[in-house]
Amino acid sequence: MKNEKNITISKIAELCGISRQVASAVLLGKNGSVGFSKETKKRVEEVARIANFRPNRTWLNATQNRHGTIGVLTKKIYSIPGSGNVSSIIIEAKKYGFLVTFEIISDNETDLPQFIKENVVDGLLMFEDLGEELDAKIRQFNIPAAYVNINNFERPGCINYDEAGLMKQLAKHFHKKGKKNIAFISASSAKYNDIRNEALIKVCKKLKMPVPLSYGIINQNIATGNYEPSYLEIEKFLNNNLQVDAIILERDKFALNLYKVLEKMNRSIPKDVSVISIMSDPRISYLLEPHLTSCRLINNIESSAFGTKLLCESIEKRKSVKSHLLEYEIIERGSV
Q: What Å distances lie between residue 46 and 13, 16, 35, 162, CA to CA?
């Protein structure tokens, strides 16, 4: 087939012997709504390549009464969670035929984002608690919005990690192993750690276990990747609390120092002290001996991509984003 000028999706569908809907789903990246085989996808893409097909995005969006773009609003790009980060958002949005535009806002910002002022987005994906004043202004436009991991369970459209459920799991797991005195060692004063601490206290009380201890590492040096100064803090904390026989780490990067401290104290893992890290990095877990037990979201879900998926589906269905709790699972290794 020769290169054709202004070839249409209908013509490509005819040449491939498929429906226009399937050809459209392949060519416009909307495989989230229409199913097709790998063979069909390959055939359609080959015909489109030879014909030099380019979709008229403006026309397409006009026929669907949308802009074809979702807006990502954040204060810092690195606050977007997940290993895929920005890439996972773009890839997921593409599945539904959406482009992605980003806007950075400053702290205490109360002015409307530019892409809302100019009416160029169909929905919003947010990774910051914007404050009630700005959030109320945005809600007036009735734009579908998904808030990822801001730990505001009262606001609609929030996709939060089930922090309380996680701590219940961990406490019960330690309890089954015969451990009684739990310590939670964290690296920040973020709201999600308050949620974790409150839930841990409640479940320990229910299980008739001693009140858990909580310690916040001060000398983190997280920005430089240097966690060595935390050694002395961990050593002092454990020497002052010899009853501790189960430890929850907020960050697996503290595990190396914890292992060193316990070895110096002649306390073995997991016989004397069981250890579980909330963050899961197999590269760290398997470097330690015994291997570090850790946690991850069920099905290894990526929260940024999941939030994008929910937002795109809500835009297509013209409905508000429903709130979700992302549940954790324990990846048991040798440290418990």
A: 12, 10, 18, 44
CA distances from 244 to 32, 182, 220 (A): 49, 6, 22
| Measured distance CA(326)–CA(161) in Å, rounded | 5
Using CA atoms, how far residue 114 sits from 82, 118, 222, 286, in Å, is: 26, 6, 33, 46
CA angle 148, 154, 157 (to 5 degrees): 40
| Strand intervals (E) in the chain | 69-74, 99-104, 123-126, 145-148, 158-161, 182-186, 213-216, 246-249, 274-277, 293-297, 324-326, 328-331
Q: Which alpha helices (DSSP H) does 121-241 contain, by range?
A: 132-139, 163-176, 191-206, 230-240
What residues contact residue 118 under an 8 Å CB cut-off, 6+ apart? none
**Could you read off the pLDDT of 7-49 as tens digits, one per residue?**
888 888 999 999 988 888 887 765 556 778 889 988 988 888 8
Chain segment 106-122, per-residue pLDDT in tens? 877 788 888 988 888 99
The pairing of beta strand 293-297 with beta strand 328-331: antiparallel
| Domains in the chain, CATH or no CATH each | 9-55 (1.10.260), 63-161+301-327 (3.40.50.2300), 163-297 (3.40.50.2300)
Three-state SS at 19: coil
Own/partner contacts of 62-66, CB < 8 Å, gap of 24 or more, are 66/122, 66/315
Closest residue by Cα to residue 135 from 105, 102, 100, 93: 105
- Report the alpha-carbon distance of residue 211 to residue 183 in Å, rounded: 9
